[in-house]
């Protein structure tokens, strides 16, 4: 069977057994069979530069991380109701990257589970219910979080208040004003605040990063109203912004919760919530929390190995340096093509604004044909999302930029 | 450092960094360092028969499953928005074990994510909100599911109606009567039904399995009221009852949803929801669903390998045969000791009723000292929960039974 026949047959099998709620990327879906570093290979042997997936932070199938998973899986895979080294090591390692006020760790399987729990804890300890999110936010798949993820198009849940975050902020105080306005609306509605929940790189809003520090006043505002600040680090966490391990660091704030997921195990399902000791104790007075797979020894080994690689291979420095190089290259495309109207983001998380969702979709599919994988996000899906593994080199960035330039130059209709 | 010093030091480190909401099993927590088959080893080198953990269905650290995880992790670990073999293979494999009406698969990371989604889909497609659960039910950790898990002691959520399931049913129709009563209460409250959600081995209720078939009338009742039936297979699934892959098979019903988790990857975080094509399509008309880690190629490989082992090693047959042997042995203890008042369950999921939660706790801790790990469940935690890996042999069951007999005979105060 040829690669094409195999592709069609697999698509047909897939349509028969997987829920139609699943959607494949790209006009021509990519049939992937292996991956290594920044490259992902299709069934015909062609390779694609993966500049989209925020999970394989250290590069696909990193041998050190694969080895750590394999070794731990062969020795012990069990849960946190027994005493064992791995979850303790991981919690210590995570806390060492955090402000000293952050002292308590809970391990889960997905960013969704972490955010769902952060909201539950916030509501339990504040006695409030009101939650503020941005109007293109995405925070997870649980029933609770769907109502806090307006980018899905679903109605927001009860006591959820949205703010329209501008793609370019006027000044460092603008975001705080929007949060204060949401708190006013909450007060008018008789709702007591529980939390401000934001992705600290505003990924689904289109990668809004400037001016650094714009979250500071917002955190003061939610605290002033008796609510808590949840830094959703699922997208920016583990070094992506190039300015430290966590996105909130660029804004010089200490969150009440940092939630993390996607890149944490370089693909292994592991996620976490980090909070203050005080909040963890206040919650424990009301409720327990146990998660069967959350914090299992193998998931912890995967996360520890990922942190090892981030450190040993200098991936945060690379996110800063190669991220700057990528940013300069993308800026020069923005300067040259009218359909590209702006560049945002930080480190190796970049958003390129286009004039429309249609144009963004055509660029995404054009780049896929040219061997580069990116995606789109933001209002009307008009922003391009560029998020390669943090191990990407300048040569690989050059391939991305040259491909981007070529499709804009050669393909008709842009 | 001695094993005891190491143990104390690790406990202290753990208390410093993990949330106090975590609880360790046993009066003397078990510091585990490795596991193999039915045995789990502490830091001092002592081995314990694991007759509690429902996750390592094929035995701890099964080399075939570990190998499958390691191989797949080295080749490709990515998500369902690319076309790839593994999730399709897994969905086909799962559907082959199901009634033909079950035609659509969604993959998640935990039973909680699967149950949370099943409720969301039920409410979306029925337009109802009412959910019926048992009064000692446990269905997961999400915000939504905490309100459907009264065993946690938390208040039930809005539109959740509980039924008090008797430990011994009068007849095959009794459960249906209870569900009909809950539907009446729902109607009186003006709530439209969405779903009946039950663990088909009633694990947290104390392992209620007889008479087989008692779910049949209940499923007819919820269908008659326009609601759907969610079979929570997280506990009974993957052969534990010895009567087929799924707990609902003992009751001769076809669910609208089967949700599964714990044993699905023998410890790897993988879970799933299986539903009918019609329901999946109806849901897709309203909402999408995507889960970053859910259905990743490595999680699928772990689940496929676990299904291979269940089949090749005849684990369902062993659950039936060795389960019967275990049941006979436990029954003879029930016959001989007055503090044990009854035996329930099926296959290798057994509940031994004791006279009180205190007694159950003392037996659990006594067995732990004797080298056998079990747990407790049910109303007042007065039932002992015995759930060894499905690979357990008669010799190992003998060790369990002899240890059980010895602690009841030798220790004062029972």
Walkthrough of the structure:
2 copies of one chain form a homodimer. Chain A is of the alpha/beta class and 414 residues long. The first copy, chain A, has 2 domains: 153 residues, Aspartate Aminotransferase, domain 1; 250 residues, Type I PLP-dependent aspartate aminotransferase-like (Major domain) (Aspartate Aminotransferase, domain 2, 3-Layer(aba) Sandwich). The first copy, chain A, is 38% helix and 18% strand. Chain A is built from 12 helices and 15 strands. In chain A, the strands form 3 sheets. In chain A, strands 4-10-9-8-7-5-6 form a 7-stranded mixed β-sheet, with helices on both faces. In chain A, helix 3 runs parallel beside helix 9 and helix 4 crosses helix 8. Chain A is globular. The mean pLDDT of chain A is 96. At the A-B interface, helix 1, strand 1, helix 2, helix 3 and strand 4 of A face helix 1, strand 1, helix 2, helix 3 and strand 4 of B.
């Amino acid at each position: 069977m040829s690669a094409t026949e195999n592709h069609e047959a697999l698509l047909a099998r897939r349509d028969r057994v997987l829920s139609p709620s699943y959607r494949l990327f790209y006009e021509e879906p990519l049939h992937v069979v292996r991956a290594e570093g920044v490259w992902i290979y299709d069934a015909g042997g062609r390779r694609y530069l993966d500049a989209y997936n925020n999970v394989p932070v250290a590069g696909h199938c990193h041998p050190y991380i694969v080895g750590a998973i394999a070794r731990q899986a062969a020795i012990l895979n069990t849960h946190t109701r027994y005493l064992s080294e791995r979850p303790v090591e991981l919690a210590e390692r995570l806390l060492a990257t955090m402000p000293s006020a952050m002292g308590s760790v809970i391990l889960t399987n997905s960013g969704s589970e972490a955010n769902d729990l952060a909201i539950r804890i916030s509501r339990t300890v504040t006695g409030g219910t009101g939650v503020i999110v941005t109007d293109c936010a995405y925070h997870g798949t649980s029933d609770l979080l769907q109502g806090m993820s307006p980018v899905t198009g679903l109605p927001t849940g009860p006591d959820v208040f949205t703010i329209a975050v501008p793609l370019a902020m006027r000044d460092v105080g603008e975001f705080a004003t929007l949060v204060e306005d949401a708190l006013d609306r909450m007060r008018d509605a008789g709702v007591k605040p529980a939390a401000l929940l934001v992705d600290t790189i505003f990924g689904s809003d289109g990668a809004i990063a400037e001016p650094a520090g714009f979250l500071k006043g917002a955190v003061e505002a939610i605290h002033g109203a008796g609510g808590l600040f949840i830094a959703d680090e699922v997208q920016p966490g583990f070094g992506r912004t190039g300015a430290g391990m966590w996105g909130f660091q660029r804004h010089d704030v200490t969150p009440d919760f940092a939630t993390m997921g996607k890149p944490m195990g370089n693909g292994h399902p592991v996620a976490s919530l980090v909070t203050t000791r005080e909040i963890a104790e206040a919650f424990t007075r009301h409720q327990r929390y146990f998660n069967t797979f959350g914090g299992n020894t193998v998931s912890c080994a995967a996360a520890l190995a990922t942190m090892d690689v981030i450190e040993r291979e200098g991936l945060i420095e690379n996110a800063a340096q190669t991220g700057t190089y990528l940013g300069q290259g993308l800026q020069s495309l923005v300067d040259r093509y009218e359909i590209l109207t702006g560049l945002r983001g930080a480190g190796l998380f970049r958003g390129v604004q286009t004039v429309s969702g249609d144009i963004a979709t055509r660029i995404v599919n054009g780049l896929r044909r040219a061997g580069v994988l990116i995606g789109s996000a933001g209002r009307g899906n008009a922003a391009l999302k560029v998020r390669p593994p943090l191990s990407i080199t300048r040569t690989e960035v050059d391939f991305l930029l040259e491909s981007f330039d070529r499709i804009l130059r050669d393909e008709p209709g842009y």
